[in-house]
Amino acid sequence: MSAIYAVNGVAVEPTVSIADSLPDASAQLDRQWADQAAANRLLTEGGEFYILTSVARGEITWIHVRDSIGAALPSRIRAGTGNAEFLTVSEDGRVMCAVSTEESETWIVTHRFSPG
Q1: CA proximity to 109, closest of 101, 100, 57, 73
Q2: Band of the pLDDT at 75, cuts 50, 70, 90?
Q3: What does the longest C-alpha to C-alpha distance in the chain come to?
Q4: pTM for this one?
Q5: Distances (CA, A) of 34 to 9, 20, 58, 70, 103
Q6: Nearest to residue 92, comparing CAs of 114, 60, 68, 69?
Q7: Please, which pLDDT band fits residue 115 given cuts at 50, 70 and 90?
Q8: Contact status, residue 104 vs residue 13, Cβ threshold 8 Å
Q9: In DSSP terms, which residues pair with 66 in a beta bridge?
Q10: Parallel, antiparallel or unpaired: strands 60-66 and 86-89
């Protein structure tokens, strides 16, 4: 729940904000997410991390994944779900990187959790 609050809280500020009106907004989102994931060491060397997903009966859970493609994750999620929103966390649970759609922008929100 801490990760959800870190993205949806009242005082949340994006690390990156991309105007949806830009002609290359999707490509910028893909590049910026990859840059933030790398800068924050979200993924392991093998491309592993956790992603939040809904399962049966509307429950949410973390699923451990390995991104074998390694590029354009927001675009691939949008193609599969119709929406680019998603929330990821590092294997050690200390770093979160999320994509959130706002009124006329798409945000990338990063957050580091305190150990303990």
Answers
A1: 100
A2: very high
A3: 43
A4: 0.86
A5: 23, 18, 29, 9, 23
A6: 114
A7: confident
A8: no
A9: 48
A10: unpaired
